């Protein structure tokens, strides 16, 4: 949920520090610029909504379509995997092919995929629809941010525009939980996908009249080989982890995992050999930035995995309605929103490392608390305290992680660094869900009824706690150097990091 807020704020940070050139045409009028902001903000809302709204709908969708637990996981994974794997290429296409054109095509495709997902009749079709949503979101999201950057090149209006954009990223996750509950409870789970269609139609019509085309100059080449290698490599890894629900001694599990490792190794090798790679290796070569990338993957896996299984427990075991389950999930967002400004003020005083080491440990305690849930326990005693601790810890991690993800990045690598860190969170969520589903299957195999489900959820939460401890170790190992060298240059940390 809050990982979407983190992603939006991080993208904003990059573009504020490394503004791109604007077209040589006459600037847009003030009124027209604010209409452009409204269009882009609406698009951001759609992308963020789809990260949370479907979680609330999953129990009803599973019952309606007869999804297995693995297929249920893939409804979430397909979106995150396609989005994360194709985001780097999407950014290149937007810059080279044209930002308005890419934005329009992305919106049309996203709307069609959403309509398809809301009208399908089988679980496989729903997974395909979610994958298509991720594909077109990977084209639409970077184009939208580039349009915003070229529309507001500097000054107070730019700061206001990015503050609005960032606020949408944070509020959208919470809106998705509540809206998903309302639509599922009073209409149908299908409307959690169909709701995108009217939003996209309005944004598309307005964009056709208000947006101006722009594109990057120079030698424009696409790294299709790198795209194929990273997409199939990540897909093989996630599919291999999914197969592990039947046991780790399967030949298929190790064949897929081995193929994934080989393809990813070829991807990184290819990035070192071509002139215009998807991911310049210098972006991740820094020890600090590399550690931040790993932490993005850990945080993505925890946030996506935790929210899915908490939502399932609230609705299936505790019997919450979809709307009540959405409202019951809000404390995590609220706590992060409260603690993040405090962590921002602490950052220049104590530096990022203490926050990044302690934050995951506090969050891990919250996950251990959640792992103690029972089939007869209540929300206030068994769920809420864990959510509060998780929110405190993740806020302590998110704030400095945003800074370090971009530390020392050259202006011409800013877009690639942004896409890499955004993709890392989505990819971490995809891989994490594969692991957590295997843990859930193993944990629930020994019991019956609600007790079996609770045992599976407990195994997942223990797995997320282990991931967070590993994240703390990563921070302690990779985040090195005096705090002055780990702080943003040119602006106070409060101004750079607190964007709304």
Automatic annotation (TrEMBL):
GO CC terms of this entry: plasma membrane
GO terms assigned for molecular function: transmembrane transporter activity
Cellular location(s): Cell membrane
Pfam families per record: MFS_1 (PF07690)
Domain of life: Bacteria
Domain Major facilitator superfamily (MFS) profile: start-end pairs: 36-483
Keyword terms, alphabetized: Cell membrane, Membrane, Transmembrane, Transmembrane helix, Transport
Topological type in the membrane: Multi-pass membrane protein
InterPro entries per the UniProt record, alphabetical: MFS, MFS_dom, MFS_trans_sf, Sugar_transporter_CS
Keyword Nuclease applies: no
Transmembrane segments: 34-54, 74-91, 103-121, 127-148, 160-182, 188-210, 222-242, 248-269, 290-310, 316-343, 355-373, 379-399, 419-439, 459-479
Name of this chain's protein: MFS transporter
Species per Swiss-Prot/TrEMBL record: Mycetocola zhadangensis
């Amino acid at each position: 949920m809050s990982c979407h807020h983190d992603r939006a704020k991080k993208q904003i940070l990059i573009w504020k520090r490394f503004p791109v050139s604007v077209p040589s045409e006459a600037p847009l009028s003030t009124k027209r610029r604010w209409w452009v902001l409204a269009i882009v903000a609406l698009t951001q809302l759609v992308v963020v909504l789809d990260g949370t709204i479907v979680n609330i709908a999953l129990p009803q969708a599973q019952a309606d379509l007869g999804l297995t637990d693995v297929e249920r996981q893939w409804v979430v994974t397909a979106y995150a995997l396609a989005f994360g794997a194709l985001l780097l290429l999407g950014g290149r296409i937007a810059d080279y092919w044209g930002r308005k054109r890419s934005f329009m095509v992305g919106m049309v495709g996203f709307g069609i995929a959403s309509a398809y997902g809301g009208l399908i009749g089988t679980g496989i079709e729903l997974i395909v629809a979610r994958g298509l949503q991720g594909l077109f979101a990977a084209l639409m999201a970077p184009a939208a941010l580039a349009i915003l950057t070229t529309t507001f090149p500097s000054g107070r209006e730019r700061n206001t525009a990015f503050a609005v954009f960032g606020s949408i990223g944070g509020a959208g996750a919470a809106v998705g939980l509540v809206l998903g509950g309302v639509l599922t409870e009073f209409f149908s789970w299908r409307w959690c996908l169909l709701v995108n269609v009217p939003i996209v139609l309005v944004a598309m019509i307005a964009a056709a009249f208000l947006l101006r085309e722009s594109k990057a100059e120079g030698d424009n080449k696409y790294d299709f080989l790198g795209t194929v290698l990273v997409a199939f490599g990540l897909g093989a890894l996630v599919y291999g982890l999914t197969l592990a629900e039947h046991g780790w001694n399967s030949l298929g599990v190790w064949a897929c995992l081995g193929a994934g490792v080989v393809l990813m190794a070829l991807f990184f090798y290819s990035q070192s050999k071509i002139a215009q790679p998807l991911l310049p290796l210098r972006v991740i070569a820094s020890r600090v930035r590399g550690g931040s990338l790993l932490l993005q993957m850990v945080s993505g896996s925890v946030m996506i995995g935790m929210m899915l299984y908490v939502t399932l427990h609230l609705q299936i075991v505790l019997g919450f309605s979809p709307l009540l389950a959405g409202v019951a999930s809000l404390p995590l967002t609220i706590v992060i929103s409260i603690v993040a400004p405090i962590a921002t003020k602490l950052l220049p005083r104590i530096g990022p490392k203490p926050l990044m080491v302690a934050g995951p440990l506090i969050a891990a305690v919250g996950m251990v608390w959640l792992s103690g849930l029972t089939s007869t326990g209540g929300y206030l005693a068994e769920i809420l305290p864990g959510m509060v601790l998780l929110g405190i810890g993740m806020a302590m991690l998110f704030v400095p992680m945003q800074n370090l993800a971009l530390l020392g990045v050259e202006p011409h690598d800013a877009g690639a660094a942004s896409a890499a860190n955004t993709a890392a969170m989505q990819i971490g969520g995809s891989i994490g869900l594969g692991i957590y589903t295997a843990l859930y299957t193993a944990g629930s195999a020994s019991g019956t009824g609600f007790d079996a489900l609770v045992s599976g959820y407990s195994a997942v939460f223990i797995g997320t706690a282990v991931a967070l401890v590993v994240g703390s170790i990563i921070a302690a190992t990779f985040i090195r150097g005096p705090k002055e060298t780990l702080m943003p240059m040119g602006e106070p940390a409060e101004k750079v990091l607190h964007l709304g």
